[in-house]
Amino acid sequence: RHELQLALFNVIKNSLDAVGPREEKKVKIVLRRAGSSAEVEVSDTGPGIPPGALPGLLSRCASGKADGAGVGLEITSDFIRENGGKLEIGTDAQGGARIRIKLPLHSPA
Is the pLDDT score of 54 beyond 80? Predict the structure, then answer.
């Protein structure tokens, strides 16, 4: 549970950082059930992710921030994968970043 909280915190913090200096500041968080999965989608009105940068964002030392260490999304993805989920990175319809976290739903034992 703690790892998933950290993963979600990191995704939301990245979106808030991305919209920081912009005049139009929006971070949208959508929660939904999709079959046997729960989805959390975080999108923003930041500058987005350059298409060529998408493949390397989940590898160590990749950061779009001047002060970034480049391990945030990699560790976030690891936490989600260790809990049976998947992290998808893309571009929102408005041009900002969109991160989708898919996690399996578990029924009570």
Answer: no
